[in-house]
Amino acid sequence: MSDSTVIKVDSDYSPRGAEGQKYLAMGKKVAMRLWQNEQPGEAKPEVQRDYETVGYVIAGIAELHMEGQIVLLKPGNSWIVPEGAPHTYKILEPFTAVEATAPPAAIHGRDD
Known about the structure:
The structure is a single chain. By secondary structure, this protein is mainly β. It has a single domain (about 20-100), classed as Jelly Rolls (Sandwich), CATH 2.60.120.10. The chain is about 0% helix and about 45% strand. It has no helices and six strands. Strands 1, 2, 3, 4, 5 and 6 form a six-stranded antiparallel β-sheet that branches. β3 and β4 (about 70-75) form a beta hairpin. The chain has strands at about 20-25, 30-40, 50-65, 70-75, 80, 85-100. About 15% of the residues are buried.
């Protein structure tokens, strides 16, 4: 029999990561997180993660720097960062986005 457990997460009580992300619902193979009202500033340090990320912009503007490209992210845009790709973000206007990571970023120190 398959797992039929329903999980609901209220983001008002979600745990936060070291970079300010809110961890939302998480399954065995995929997890969600929320970047809420991230403020403009210098580009974050470049990282290379052992998970794939897909994201969707709710509000604000940011740049995704990856593989020598700069991609402008605006409300309604979605993006993918492949597993292992060196990348960074630069927030240009207060930015809110939701991301899904596979496997889940919040476990096994993947976000460290």
